[in-house]
Amino acid sequence: MNTVTIAGLHKTYRSTQALTDIHLEIGTGLFGLLGPNGAGKTTLMKILSTILPYDDGEVTIYGADLNKEGDKVRGLLGYLPQHFHAPQQFTGREFLHYAGSLKGIANRQERSDQVERLLEEVNLVPHADKKIKSFSGGMARRLGIAQALLGNPKFIMLDEPTAGLDPSERIRFRNVIERLSKDYTIILSTHIISDIESSCERVAVLNNGQVLYQGTTGDLAQQALHCIWEFQVPYADYDRIEKEHVIISSRREMNDSIFRVVARRPPSPHAAAMQPTMEDGYMAVINGVTS
Amino acid sequence: MSKQGLIYRNELRLLNRNPFLILPFVVLLLCWGYVIFSYENQSVHYEELAAEFYNNFQWIMLIGLLLAGLLAVYMAGKDHESEFEHVVVTYKVKNTEWVAGKWLVAQTYGLCLTSMTLLIQGVWFLNGSMGMEEWIRNLAYVCVQMEGAIFFIISCGFLFAALIRNMIAYICIPALLGIAFLAQANSYGFALVNPRFNLLTPYDSMYIASPYDSIWGIHGVFDEALLHQLAVFLLGVIILFAAILLFRPHRSLRIEKRMLMTLIIILMLPAILVGGIRYEHYDRALEQFMDTGQRYMSKGANGESLFYTMPEDRPKYPFAMERTQLNVYFPSENWMKVDSQLTIAYNGDVPINDVSLTLHHQLAVTDCSSHVQLSCSRDNDGIRIHFHDAIEPDARIDLNLDYEGNIGQFRFDGLLQHAFVESDRIYLPKEAGWYPLIGERHLVESVRARDDRYVQFEVRNGELAEDYPTEFDVTIMGQEIGIPMALTIPRAKDGSYKGATQYGLSLIGGNLEEASVGQTRIVGHPEVLDGARKTTELYQESWSYMEGWLGVPIAPKVIYILDDDYQDRTRVMPSREFYAWSVYDIGYVDASFMPYRLVANLINEIGSYGDDVSVLQRAMIWVLLDHSGIETGYGQFGDWYAAEGRYATHEQKPKGADKLSHYEEVGKEQFRQAVKYLFLHYEGLEDKAEFKLEAALTAYEGAASQ
């Protein structure tokens, strides 16, 4: 069942068309939002989180019209922006209490329980009484995740949540949202495809303000079926290959370079067809080279 | 706790943890510390403590406003700059709660700045000579002025931050204060273009230089300041609501928008009403002043040149006011009712039917009668009395003249009350024409302005010098006025004022006391009386010397210590009986400058009377400089006179100066006697322009040889 429906969404910044005719249907669980820089992911996230108004279209979240019932939507919302900055003079615990109160958790005991649980979940208990200005980038990010999850929001939007997290914290984070995804709708916007690959069931790819793909993560990989090739050329040809093909990856072996490219036809007589991954599918969609 | 309260509490906690928070308090404390230390360090005070406070309050308040305004922009914009706002706006928090919560924190901070100023003022004013009621009134005035302005500027800060989401919002605060400052700058700012711009400041600025007026304290501005600041306060609330409406308007709830719009409309009504009343009050004062300027406008170029060079000299009038008895009532604010009995002496040579009196045109004559048949007519300030039977030379006429009206008068674009009668202050200078003066007199002189000022004219008081003294008997009736009062004649035991004076009458009432030095009464604010007494004692020695030398009374009978703006308006009426001194007159007494001031009281600097009068004036100064032992660097009067900068070469200076110098070569006493003769000769002239130095010296030599 869809909890978030977006139909014909348009957003313009002065003369720049940021989002064009966006149609998305998102249900309970983890939903990945992929796209290069400037694709419109953050704009879409800001609109869904009621930060920005939009020009046209219809958006409903858990049945509430975003345009008319913004306040109701905010009651369902947990949001972590791309750049999260909490007031530096607060301690981590103070800030979460403040955020919890603003989110409407009026009962002090309930708020304390939630704050302590989230501090535990994001591994900030040892630092909870330190001023935020002393936090590292990763700690501040974890605090941001904690504030987004305060108040048990039904609709959670996380913009680049794992940026700056070390691998162990990233795993911890994945586990937390994995658990939450059973009951809630979570939109994950990220550049890190492995985060989406490991967590999300469904994904949308945005580029230039348009939705190029939406579907399951598995189907995204299939977008590049028969279009992924690997071949080996002398290292001296590196520049030529880079100009002629969409390269997904390359590595050097002795005096040769091994390229993984996306192309409808074999880029070389010796090129070998490869089984596509989600990253291959994403590159194929972005570059318009789908099967 | 409501979310607004929650935001307030947490934002206040954040602000308290900001180490830079204390800086504005330190700045204000240093400013006031310097002011108080400088004042209290003086052994004798020539200016009231409150005057010193208000002289500095204005610029220190501007610093406070700047700091509070910048803090408001910071409070409103800090979370936008740090992007924390991007998180908060996704919470279930209303725009009103968020903006108003932070606005309250800024207001609390502003209130602390005001409270600190009030604390400093309150403690410092306890050292002054004011009653508890006045002490409270002064605190209330500073509170409404500073807090009202801070309240407004903080709301503006929030509005700027909502409209401009970058650093330019900060620049708007000093820009706004700069505009406000220019709006009140009467000499060069917007107020020069139109003095009504004075009203467009976040604090009441309807005064000249300082709201404090010596013996009248802040009573003259208090009521209007309350009204002004009430309008500012209402405007501040409206601006806050506008700032909330402009804060991310798409996320405002419909009910929130409606409520704010409704409140704005509701608040605009009293704001317009109060602002309108304030405007109307000032406009009435300005119109009265403009009427004064138009009414007394000089006709012709001659009048214009005389305006700038000297008071218009009035030809001798054959009538003299021999006796004036006044019973004065003050039934309500600025309203006066007077029953007068006048005795007029006719000193002319031929029988005459008409006598002219002068009384301010706002005072209507209710009775004009005598034991002889007469008829009275009015033309502006003039009262023409026509006697059916001609008045014979040396006759005395008794006249009953009753009048009443509003005596309130304004000067300086309506910013200065020139005459007023209120429950806590009175000022009725002679120039206000509040009692009948003999002859047709110009109470005011007015000419076309030479600059771009709005009113297009300049005014000054008329000369109003009398030819003969008058015996006055004045009774202030009723008990409504409970404040100390003083007249230019002394108070008798029965409470009335009795005495003969050639100067006339100026009535003052306020926080005043009297002291005496010799025969001279000094009337002023209790805090400056010591200083005034010391200065008078300094002059006393010179007055005595001059009286011994010239043989004419020099020491004044009474000295009023007035605010500079009021003292300045008495300058055109030279009198040896009455002086009005300002704090500058009593505070800055330089021995080398004193001879100039002493002589200026006897002979004005009169360019149009020619060089001969100037030589006489300088010769008198030279004698006084010599008496005081002040080194000029010149041995002879002629050399000193030439070196005063008036003449490039000795040949250019008037021959009279050299001729006068010859007496000095004979001896100092001969020079003194010659100068004395010249002065008395000058004194005796009806038309001072007829003074001819060489002719007078020739006459002196003739008289001396006999």
TrEMBL record, chain A:
The record's section on InterPro entries has: AAA+_ATPase (IPR003593), ABC_transporter-like_ATP-bd (IPR003439), ABC_transporter-like_CS (IPR017871), P-loop_NTPase (IPR027417)
Question: Superkingdom of this entry's organism?
Answer: Bacteria
Name of one Pfam family that matches: ABC_tran
Any GO molecular function: ATP binding
For the ABC transporter domain, which residue ranges apply? 4-233
For this protein, the record's PROSITE patterns field holds: ABC_TRANSPORTER_1, ABC_TRANSPORTER_2
Q: What keywords does the record list, in alphabetical order?
A: ATP-binding, Nucleotide-binding, Transport
Q: Which family does it belong to?
A: Belongs to the ABC transporter superfamily.
What is this protein identified as?
Answer: Vitamin B12 import ATP-binding protein BtuD
**Species assigned in the record:** Paenibacillus plantiphilus
Automatic annotation (TrEMBL), chain B:
Q: Which domain of life is it from?
A: Bacteria
- Where do transmembrane segments lie in this chain? 20-37, 57-76, 104-127, 139-161, 168-191, 226-247, 259-279
Q: What is the lineage of its organism?
A: Bacteria, Bacillati, Bacillota, Bacilli, Bacillales
Going by the UniProt record, its keywords in alphabetical order are: Membrane, Transmembrane, Transmembrane helix
Q: Which organism is it from?
A: Paenibacillus plantiphilus
Indicate what this protein is called per its UniProt record: ABC transporter permease
